[in-house]
Amino acid sequence: MAPRITVIGTGYLGATHAAAMAELGFEVLGLDVAPEKIEMLGRGKVPMYEPGLEELLRKHVAGLEGSTGRLRFTTSWEEVGEFGNVHFVCVNTPQKHGEYACDMSYVDAAFTSLAAVLHRPALVVGKSTVPVGSAARLARLLTELAPAGEEVELAWNPEFLREGFAVQDTLHPDRIVVGVAGERGEKLLREVYAGPVGEGTPFVVTDYPTAELVKTAANSFLATKISFINAMAEVCEAADGDVVKLAEAIGHDDRIGKKFLRAGVGFGGGCLPKDIRAFMARAGELGVDQALTFLREVDSINMRRRAHMVELAREAVGGSFLGQRVAVLGATFKPDSDDVRDSPALNVAGQIHLQGGQVTVYDPKGMENARRLFPTLAYAESALEACRGARVVLHLTEWGEFRELDPKEIGAVASDQHIIDGRNALDAAAWRDAGWTFRAMGRPRA
């Protein structure tokens, strides 16, 4: 008999995982403590923008016309305990306020509530990004609190979702990592992931600590690669070099590769910044903080890029933002998402606003979330309107829509033709040919 799956926490990770498990053919029950979120998901709607996710939900949510009915949602822990024998925990681990360490309170609360309703053998699978050592502690907690005791087993199965590609990454992952304590957990997870494994996805079996480390190690490496090319951008600007050509040249080396070598305003979002900081905090607790000292500079380089963009913008408007109109194209931390958490674009916009600039922001998908986070900024309904009357235009999120802008059309409404490309994604020649003064981070002025 196929496993019946529950998903605890229906945010970005959980909603995607639940829909994907239904797509793979399983009966799935999703739980969240927020009734309004459950009500929305029950209508086949999602509280975030993720390409393809809403369509996948509507395909499987029970009660919707034409759906398979394999996916339901609830707020009842008792229903979860009765329904499932494989329980995926997908709750958030945000950064603690005023600290580098991550906040484990949501994970601990979820495990405690779930354990209380486990009256028969079950596999609990953690997918949240947690400090190494957490799984062993949570395994003990399950044994102590679950009525089924030692018949409840824990596995750790880190997620590797990229926002904008989450559905693809769940259904067709580049690897599946499972940290297990026994053969039963491995066997059940091989059954759950039989589809992707059958397509050739590697299935990596590890112990708990290694599985916990995989996600933070991967994100730390990616962050390091991004900050490395941004450090090279600083050197290129000082030496009048071209970081785009530099990245192209070193990217042809198979040992280095081309991905994540796009210099610009830096990384943000809900994963990379918090994960590398939590990794540093945990290393300190383990007494090996010197092993990750380099991540402090990775973080520092990343934050410096935002300050540098502000300086370039100040220079473009004549040395002071007071009373100057500034257009910011982009609010999300990356394209194909509505996520504005730790967004470099909004951070730059906020800094300029605090220094007296009249900032107007436009983003194809992130406007509602941006307004909620930065209500004092001005917002426009289009890129053209955002640029109207602007002394300088800042391109800070790499949406395809912005690459298609007509420089002449924008130039007709802007006060001055100054543009700074914070993502090294625009056609510099096209903007310069249209009469714009074009700057990009790490590239020659002309």
What do you see in this structure?
The chain has 446 residues and is of the alpha/beta class. Helix content is 44%, strand content 13%. Helix 1 packs across helix 3, helix 10 packs parallel to helix 13 and helix 13 packs across helix 14. The protein starts with a strand and ends in a 6-residue tail after the last strand.
Span of the ends, CA to CA: 66 Å
Give the proportion of residues in helices: 40-55%
The best one-word shape is globular
Number of strands: 14
Backbone structural class: alpha/beta
List low-confidence stretches: none
Give the neighbour order of strands across the main sheet.
Answer: 3-2-1-4-5-6-7-8
Number of helices: 19
Main beta-sheet annotation: 8 strands, mixed
The percentage of residues in β strands lies in: 5-15%
Tell me, rounded to a whole number, the average pLDDT: 96
Rg computed from alpha carbons, rounded to a whole number of angstroms: 24 Å
Topology of helices and strands:
Layout: E1 5-8, H1 12-23, E2 28-31, H2 35-42, H3 53-60, E3 71-74, H4 77-83, E4 86-89, H5 105-115, E5 122-126, H6 134-145, E6 152-156, H7 166-171, E7 176-180, H8 183-192, H9 194-198, E8 203-206, H10 208-239, H11 243-251, H12 272-285, H13 294-316, E9 325-329, H14 344-354, E10 358-362, H15 367-373, E11 378-379, H16 383-387, E12 392-395, H17 400-403, H18 407-413, E13 418-421, H19 428-433, E14 437-440
Parallel strand pairs: 1-2, 1-4, 2-3, 4-5, 5-6, 7-8, 9-10, 9-12, 10-11, 12-13, 13-14
Antiparallel strand pairs: 6-7
Helix pairs in contact: 1-3, 5-6, 10-12, 10-13, 13-14
